[in-house]
Design a protein that fits this description.
single chain; alpha+beta; three-stranded antiparallel β-sheet; 6 strands; about 55% helix
Length: about 170
């Protein structure tokens, strides 16, 4: 594959991640890139993998979501090559973020994960984060992986109600 388009796609991903102050999920990045038809899904996966291998972004997978964030090295690289991104693409990204930023921030600030504990049970960790500050972290131990997955999914759907209940009951 020609390196020139791949370089542009990498710069677009770096530019997008640099424009937000929170991690974006792989799905959020894909939505913009695919909606605007900059490239296809397989090429985007290659681009993200290469950026992560080069240390320009971090990719952290929690349950079924991969969170992407630009690194300092990624910011430095972008500063040298940002002029290769057209003004039209920058405008597209700016408009997309303006329209979706609140929803994207909320989705990225709710995190859940689970793992198998030494005793054979499963531990879930549910977190709500705002501007790199943990608002709440809940750890639950459950007997099955299916239950752990269900708890993580329900946290993603019902976190506001759960957080509101906790603060009302505790304060």
């Amino acid at each position: 594959m020609n390196q020139e388009p791949l370089t542009l796609y990498k710069l677009i991903v770096l530019y997008l991640l640099n424009k937000v102050s929170f991690p974006l999920t792989m799905a959020q990045v894909s939505d913009l890139i695919l909606e605007k038809e900059y490239t296809n899904y397989l090429t985007l996966q290659q681009v993200i993998n290469e950026l992560a291998q080069a240390g320009l972004i971090t990719a952290k997978t929690l349950v079924n979501r991969t969170h992407l964030q630009i690194t300092e090295e990624g910011r430095n690289t972008l500063s040298y090559f940002e002029n290769r991104i057209s003004d039209a693409i920058k405008t597209d990204i700016g408009e997309y973020l303006k329209k979706n930023e609140l929803e994207m921030r909320n989705e990225s600030s709710i995190q859940s994960n689970y793992y198998k504990a030494v005793n054979g049970e499963f531990e879930t960790e549910l977190t709500a984060v705002d501007k790199d500050v943990n608002l709440v972290t809940i750890r639950l131990t459950v007997p099955t992986e299916e239950l752990a997955i269900s708890i993580c999914e329900n946290w993603q759907k019902n976190n506001r109600e759960i957080y509101q209940y906790l603060t009302t009951a505790l304060f």
